[in-house]
Structures are given as C-alpha cells and as structure tokens.
Amino acid sequence: MQDVNSKRERIKELTDLLNRASKAYYAEDAEIMDNLTYDRLYDELAALEEETNIRYADSPTIRVGYEAVDELPKMQHERPMLSLDKTKDPETLRSFIGENKTLLSWKMDGLTIVLTYTGGELSLAVTRGDGRIGEVVTPNARAFKDLPLSISFKGELILRGEAYITYEDFEEINRRIEDADAKYKNPRNLCSGSVRQLNSEVTAARNVRLKAFSLVKAEGVDFHNSHKEEFEWLKAQGFDVVEFREVTKDTLDEAMEYFKKAIAANPFPSDGLVALYDDIAYGESLGTTAKFPRNSFAFKWADEQRATHLKEIEWSPSRTGLINPIAVFEPVELEGTTVSRASVHNLSIMEELALGEGDEILVYKANMIIPQIAENRTRSGSCRPPEYCPVCGSATHIKDENGVKTLFCGNPDCPAKAIKSFALFVGREAVNIEGISEAILEKLIGAGLISTFADIFRLKDHRSEITEMEGFGEKSFEKLTASIEKARKTTLARLICGLGIPNIGTAAARLIANAFDNDPEKVMDADVDELVAVEGIGELTAGVYKEWWAKEKNREAYRALLDVMEFEKPEKPAGNSLLAGKTFVITGSLNHYENRNALKEYIENAGGKVAGSVSRKTDYLINNDAASASSKNRTAAELGIPVITEDKFNEKFT
Questions:
Q1: 567 has which bridge partners?
Q2: How much is the average pLDDT of 560-571?
C-alpha cells in the first residue's frame, strides 16, 4: 500500500509540474524547464499511470496544450486538434509504418494556426490554443510574409500550418534588443509572441512565415484518397507546404538520413519528423485515442550529447535583482559549434542536478540551439548559492514561488540593477558607444569596473582585467576602447538624453541644449520659467527636469562626465527655414545619411520634427521605396500625405 501511495503522490507531483511547464510554454511564451527534462518527466508520468491505472482529470497525458490567454477573442475549432504520439526510436517509427505508404515531413517548432478561406479569401485564423479553443489572430495572419491572402479555389478551405520565424530573422531581432534580459530565448517564443500581438504591424515587422502541414477541408475537391495529392494541391494554391518524402518501412532509413543532414542547413526550427499514412480513408478508419490520432506519429531527434566537466557556477546578477546561475564547463563541440557555458535557470534546477565543481556532466543543445545540462553523472552537490551579491556585496536571499527557488540581491541600490540606465547612456540615441551591449555592461559592472557613467571613459586603464574576462581578448578590448574614445567627443544634447532624466528624450534634450547655447553649466542651472519659455517644453517636463538637477548626486555624476568628455556645437544646416515647423516620418533604409537617427538629427536641428508614425499632422513620409505596400505608405496614401525619397528630400530641403 505504501508503494502505491508513493507512486500516487509522484503522479500528482508530476501532473502539477508538467501542467505548470505547459502553461508557461503555451500561454505565457516562457520556459521553466528544457525540452529534454519535460519529455523525461512526461514519460515517467505516463508509465506510472499505466502501471497504477491512476490518471487525474488534469493529467497532461489526456489534456492537450493549455487554455488560451484572454487578450484575444477565443473560438472553438471545428475539429479538435490532438497531439501526436512520439518516439525517439527509429524502429518504433518503422513499426508504425508497417506495410503502409507513408509521408515523412518536418516536425516544426513554431505556433500552429488553423486557417479558413471563404470565396478564395483568407477569412479566419485561429491559434491551436488548448486543442479545442484557440485565439483569433486573423489580422496578424494577413501580415504573414509568405501566406496567400487570395487563392483560386472559391469553396470553403480549412487547413493547418505552422507559423515560424527563421533563425536569421530571430538573430536580427535579438541583435536590435540592447536589454539582455529582454532578448528572446528561441525562435518559437518569439514567433508565439509575434503571432499573438494586438497590433498586426508588429507581426509584419518580425517576418512571420507559415508552412502548411495538414488539409482539414476543401469543399468538393477529390484528392483520390491521398494526402500527397492534398499537399500538391495546396502547393498549387500558393501555399508553402512543409517538405515531405514518400517512404515505406524499407526506405525509411534513407529518408531519415536525408532529413538528418538537411536539418543542419534548415533556416527554420524543427525538433523532429512527422509520419502520416498517405491513405486518407484507412487513416481515418483507425480513429483516435483520447489524446492521439492513430494515422500519424512523431519522431523526435535524439539530442546530440557530450560529456564534459563542470568548472564552476558563475552567478550573474541582472537589473531585476535576480542572480542567475551559469554553468561554466570544459569546452565541447555540439551541433557544429564549441560551447562552454549553459544557463541553469534557477536554484531548483541546480539542486535537482546536484551540481558540484569537477562533476562529469552531459550537455546538449535544446532544439539544436540553446546549451543545456542533460545529466550530472557524479552529483557531488558541492555548489552552493553565494551569501553575498557578487556585484555589491549585499546579503542575498532565496525566493520560493510555486516550488521554484530563485536567488536575489536585496540591495535596492545594487549597480547591477542600474543596467537599464547604463544601457540608455551608451545607446544610439544618447552617447552612442558602439559594441557595448547589456551583457557586456553586466560583466563590467559585476567585475567592479563600472559604478558611474564616467567610469566608462576610464575603462582603458583596466586592460588586464578586461582581457582576462570570458569572451574578451586584446582585439575586442581595442575595439571597445576605440568606440569609447570615438564617443568621448559628442554633443551636449546627446549627453543630456543619456542621463536618464524623466520625460527628456532626444527631441527635448536637443531643444534644451539649443535654447541654452549648448552651454554645459547653463543647462544644469536652468530654472522652470526659462525652460517653459522653450517652445516644445511644457510645465510638467520643466518641473521634472529641474527636480532631477536638484539632487546633488545627479549633479556630481554630471560634473564627473564634464571632466572626461568633449562637446561640439552642432552646426545649423543651410536652408533650415524650409524645414521649420514641418513634421516628417522616416522609414526604410537610407543611402546618403548614416542612419535614420542622423537624418532625424538634421531635421530637428533645422527646426523640423520627426514622428514615429504617420498621422494627419505629418507633412512628408520619407521612404526610398516610395512604391512599397508598407503600412506607413498605405496610411500616407489614405491621408493624402506626400511620400518622398531621400534624394527628393535633399533636393527640396537642403
């Protein structure tokens, strides 16, 4: 009886843990455990349920996905969307195929969407949700990069596809995010968040694509009882259909070898293959279990694993106060690259793995991208969380929320929590120090090399400390200090923008600097009446600005910067009266100006304004692709606002 009770308790524990993991993954675009751990725990739960005949109503083995979030309208699917039974054993897949002709295709790792076309037009798009009820994302689906909005078939068509973002677009989007904590962990999370946006313009900007993988209904079309013909028909309608190969049990090995090699060059995430019987009637005659259809089966890649030894746990503070454990191990080759670090995510996972210095560990890349620890073979458990913050030395404390332990710094003034302010200071809109990301700032602050803005301009005095850091060397040090030296000479407006004064962005900073003749002392001592007299500065902004300068620590930080920086007065461009009072919107790439900010600065110095979106107040939209069908161009056309190229702008206003 005791054994049954302990197994029952384990079933409850696993059910709760896996449900929380599913909620994080499907509904919150987050992850509390890696895929390998989820699969291992899921298999353990399924085996226990089979052995004991105990299966609770909320068991993930009989539920599909998780309930959709409330921000978007919900809708019930015409047919329930079931998960696929899966295996990592090729022989199990061969046994499933048996004597049947089967289609083998990619198992993509994105977000499943059900699309409906009526009268040849896309009329509805719904996410998978919990398999029964999904979220309506039709406006966002219309922004998918390669999805046809109109097709030749005029009957009712329902199909399923996988929305995804390519690795290249994923890297580019992450590159533009300076906040290290805000970067997306993988393409799947980015795709899910992009598809479920309330603003379809965001979806369009992120280049979401879709591959069709299943036809649910095509009114009146005869596919001669073949899923292959369905796929070919969808291609003819203009859909990008998931790549597939016809296989039998005898040709399976050859096809799997092809897919295994092809995945290395794939531009999209995939975590395995899907086998589908080609015979539609036969497959449907098999019916379904409570969770799985019987006409298809999933094969998940066995992750490439390498044994190595743990050197240490590095504790990485963040701006939220969270101190993250990072496993540093002897370098190994995985999926074609060398890896030596992996996030352990939290204290609970570190304790579960019983990590200790010198332990032999197995590492892998989740979805062939993110390094993870699969197993600790020696489990010495000697690693302990630090009692004091590695940045400020204040006492740390452990939080336990829903069974997940995390480590925090209790000091509200910890420099690590000021990462955001430092990132603003070095950003493009402000002092513009190229090559300093938030990740680099965290390292420099963590090493005690930066505690004030002025310290950044003294980093050249710390050559030995920086070149010995992980990821740094002589070449990267020289590149970093060269960027700092270049940024040392700047405009007063850029410095004011970078100070982090509430309500003072690039435009307000430029207005204030110009109003006080770019005098560093005058901008520090300006009173409210003088500020309100500046066109574009209101009483609220003036009051906040004056209040910020009233704090002596802010004035000291500013004076320290005056000692290490040089300022140049911006020249008024010729013909500036032509720009005065006019409002512009800039979009697309530029040829004559370094970037959009350079053109923006030119316009604002000349008395013009630059807005982020087109409205009735806009005088001109600047776009070198004046004939594009972008949302800004469409809005400009609707409002009768001229769209001019960069050349036309220079001809007219310079």
A1: 490
A2: 85
Cβ proximity of 445 and 416 under 8 Å: yes
Query: 83 and 16 in one domain?
Result: no
Distance CA 291, CA 373 (A): 30
Q: 226 forms bridges with which residues in the sheet?
A: 279
**pTM here?**
0.51
SS3 459: helix
Residue where a domain terminates, one of 567, 587, 622: 567
What DSSP element (H or E) covers 272? strand 270-277
Could you write out the DSSP letters of every residue in 437-494?
A: -HHHHHHHHHTTS-SSGGGGGGGGGGHHHHHTSTT--HHHHHHHHHHHHHHHEE-HHH
Same domain (yes/no): 213, 85: yes
Please tell me what DSSP assigns to residue 572: P
Q: Is residue 427 part of a domain?
A: yes
Residue 23 a catalytic site member: no
How many structural domains compose the chain?
Answer: 6
Give yes or no: residues 196 and 290 share one domain. yes
In a domain, 350, yes or no: yes
Instruction: Compute the average pLDDT of residues 596-608.
Output: 79
Closest CA to 206 of 295, 281, 155, 145: 145
Mean pLDDT of the chain: 84
288 & 368 share domain: no
Q: In terms of residue numbers, what domain contains 339?
A: 306-409
Residue 322, φ and ψ in degrees, nearest 5 = -70, 135
Catalytic residue among 107, 211, 365, 609: 107
On whether residue 11 sits in a domain, the answer given is: yes
Summarised one tens digit per residue, pLDDT across range 34-93 is 777 887 888 888 888 888 776 665 678 765 544 444 467 888 877 777 888 888 889 999
Of 465, 490, 515, the residue that ends a domain is 490
Task: Tell me the average pLDDT across 353-379.
Answer: 86
- For 389, residues 6+ apart whose C-beta sits below 8 A from its C-beta are 317, 323, 395, 396, 409, 411, 414, 416
CATH of the domain at 16: 1.10.287.610
Q: Can you tell me the distance from the alpha carbon of 572 to that of 604, in angstroms, rounded to the nearest whole number?
A: 10
Return the DSSP state at 27.
Answer: I
Q: With the C-alpha atoms ordered 548, 554, 559, 560, is the resulting torsion angle positive or negative?
A: negative
For 579, the token pair is: 């720009």
Does residue 61 lie in a domain region?
no
What digits encode the pLDDT tens for the residues 215-241?
999 989 999 999 999 999 998 888 889
Write the pLDDT tens digit of every residue in 609-654. 887 778 888 899 998 877 676 778 878 888 889 999 888 888 888 7
Q: Region 194-208: what's the mean pLDDT?
A: 80
